Amino acid sequence: MTQDNKQIDFLKRKVEREKMARAEAEYLLELKSRELYVTNQQLITANQNLDQIVALRTEQLRQAQQVAETAAVELKESLNRLKLIIQASGASTWDWNLRNNSVSCVSVIEGQLACNIREITAYDHFINLIHCDDKHYVEQAFSDHLVSGTPIDLECRFLNNEGKYRWFHMVGQIAINPSENSVRMVGSFADIHERRESEKIIEKMAHFDALTNIPNRSFFNKFINETITNAQYNNTCFALLLIDLNDFKIINDRYGHQVGDALLANVASALKSHIKGYDLVARIGGDEFALVLNDIPANGQLDNLCLSLINACAKPIEIAGHQLSTNLSIGIAKYPKDGDAAEHLLRCADMAMYAAKQGKVSGSTFANYQHDLDAEHTRRRSLRDEIENGINEQQFHLEFQPCVEISTGMCRSCEALLRWPQKPTSVTIQDVIEVAEESGLILQLGKQVIDQACHFIAELEAQSMPQKIGVNLSAIQFQHQDLEKIISASIDKYQINPKHLLVEVTENLFLGNMDHAVAVLKKLKKLGIEIYIDDFGTGYSSLKYLQILPIDWVKIDKSFIKDLGIKEESLQIIRAVIEMTHSMGRRVVAEGVETADQYHLLQGIGCNVAQGYHMSPALSGTACIEWIRANQPFHSDNPTQASL
Amino acid sequence: MKGIVFTEFFEMVEEKLGFEVVDKLLEQTELSTGGAYTSVGTYDHKELLALVGNLHRLTDTPVNDLLVTYGHYLFPKLSTIAPETVSQFSNCFELLASVDSIIHVEVQKLYPDAELPKFNLIRQDEQELLITYTSCRPFAYLAKGLIMGCAQHYGEQVSVDIKNREDDSLISITH
């Protein structure tokens, strides 16, 4: 084979191989095309999915954007509101980065504190602005916050730019942001100094008496309980003194409230000057004061102190042109001897003060609590309840004791005397009247007495035996009742002649509001009622009263008549009283006439009327009528007649 | 191994040694395609090794030399496939330093299944370029030929030194 033929064969084979290669290439191309198609389809699908996803994400984004915009608006409004609130509250906010010690705050704070806020670069700088008494408390609050997360919320004093301490309310909290690696403390700061000052004033007003500038009852209650606790803990004693101004009401009524107030202030000042720094004087009532004296010996006596207090108040002082002084009644109770609770001690001191008053007619007085006072107090309380019950059940009635005109033997009048069949045996009518007056029950009882007396008068008038019937009136009734109205009502009710009624008052009536008492008596006189002054000589006897008061009769107390015929002086005294009374145009009744001798002696010295067992004891209404019928006129020398 | 390596190999053998050698090679070498390679196909590299081995027997030229010669021959053929890729480099070192990062990336786009060797730049300066050649096929000397073809393309004179290591070959190209 030639070279050319070989080459031709080679080329033929090469062509064949090229054809095969081409076929393979076409096959690969087809494969690739299919792959490409599939890829394209997948791409189209992916694109479509992507479009959907994009659309969805776009919508979500749009919604998120809307939400974010709304939130941003709300946040802005919130921030504005917060800003307004902070402005309105007067608070300032502060933000302290604890890592780099930078502080940012509302500029209001800067003007308030005693330094440039930017100078506070360390905790110590901040603490040094705080009042030394508050430092520990603030440091403890910070420490508690760091340990247990308790928010800082405290009030303390900061030094301001005028070098004075002012109260601020501070709140704060740690804020840790791990992503920013920051530790901050944020909070607010408000000047509350004015509020604190106002609170102090209110506190003082709540616990101090405005008039006397000493503690009031509220403070006293707190103080005494604390004193008991301390005394208990320290095993010490203290004394409680209750002090009452005896004549305060009279002074107040006579000279007016301004004078009364000035007197109270003076008394408070005098009492204050007698106590130690850790004792207390308080005004616990209108004219009532309490002293708490700490650290007294268990058996220590307070006589000297009481006398000192009494003397201090007895010194006259000038108030509104008047020279005034006051008498005190002091009751003393001691802890723990007399009681270990506040209420108990007060009661004991009160009983002691009352007992002191009872024991003295006038002037200052003091007494220590005795245990038997309790029994007496209980007894009186019990009696009071029985009296009230008796009044409600109409248990009280009257008996009548005839009063005989000595010159004629005729019954001039009868005194109505209170009787109570159901009264406890150990109790006298005098006790009953005392307790009734103390408790105010005398008002109801007195009304019943007036009513019953008028009823008896009506009975007598109906039997054509007109007689004057005398009723005793209490000073309490003058103070608290419209006596003219009550008496007039009874007169009208029974349609009696007012001249058949007479009233008896004691001298003590004129210790109170004399002007008022006189006015009432004048009204009664105008009705035709005669006025008797009873128990003359035993009370605050004053000849001036006889001159100026609308009194018709003077009743000489039986204590003077008792010695008539036995002691010559008695006769002289009585004679003098009779003459003096007659010289003033008044007439005289002698009470407690028990013998014919006394009767005749009285007759001899010109006494107008006699009352007593010699003529008759007190009688029931019926018996009294019978006596009058049988003893008109009364003959002193006829004992049979007298004993009816 | 892409078919272009086989087709160009036969072209080179035909061109340099004549058609008869090609014929003998085809006769003596067991080839899956019977010698019908398409440039876009993918074939077992062992067939090339077999061809080169048989060519060595036919020509008495060491295998490595044959591979270097072929690589030298192959470079310009490869560069005509994507002339714009080659033209972006202004010298041999620049191209060689970017084989992995630019050239092979473009190759991979066309032939995603191509298993291309990795060229890792170790050091480059004006005088020397030091790279590592890593491949699952033992064609470091083919790479050397390609490098020399590249240098010739840029009109440069280089010497190429290959140091075979356990996992790769260290190729030093110096001006």
Q: How are the SSEs ordered, and which strands pair?
A:
The complex is a heterodimer of chains A (644) and B (175).
Chain A: H1 3-89, E1 91-97, E2 102-105, H2 107-112, H3 123-127, H4 132-148, E3 152-159, E4 165-177, E5 182-191, H5 193-207, H6 217-234, E6 237-245, H7 248-255, H8 257-272, E7 280-283, E8 288-296, H9 303-314, E9 317-319, E10 322-324, E11 328-335, H10 342-358, E12 365-368, H11 372-392, E13 397-405, E14 411-419, H12 429-439, H13 442-462, E15 468-472, H14 475-480, H15 483-494, E16 501-506, H16 514-527, E17 530-536, H17 543-548, E18 553-556, H18 558-561, H19 568-583, E19 587-590, H20 596-604, E20 609-611, H21 621-630, H22 639-643
Parallel strand pairs in A: 11-12, 14-15, 15-16, 16-17, 17-18, 18-19, 19-20
Antiparallel strand pairs in A: 1-2, 1-5, 3-4, 4-5, 6-8, 6-11, 7-8, 9-10, 13-14, 13-20
Helix pairs in contact in A: 7-8, 11-12, 13-15, 15-16
Chain B: H1 3-17, H2 19-28, H3 45-59, H4 63-81, H5 83-87, H6 92-97, H7 99-110, E1 118-124, E2 128-134, H8 140-153, E3 159-164, E4 169-174
Antiparallel strand pairs in B: 1-2, 2-4, 3-4
Helix pairs in contact in B: 1-2, 1-4, 2-3, 4-8
Oligomeric nature of the chains: heterodimer
| Rg of chain B computed from alpha carbons, rounded to a whole number of angstroms | 16 Å
Ranges of chain A with pLDDT <50 over ≥5 residues? 639-644
How far apart lie the N and C ends of chain A? 202 Å
What is the number of helices of chain B? 8
Strand percentage of chain B: 5-15%
Major β-sheet of chain A, in short? 8 strands, mixed, barrel
Q: Spans of chain B of 5+ residues with little confidence (pLDDT < 50)?
A: none
Largest interface: A-B, 17 and 16 residues
Strand order of the largest sheet of chain B: 1-2-4-3
Mean pLDDT of chain B: 89
Strand order, main sheet of chain A: write it out.
13-14-15-16-17-18-19-20
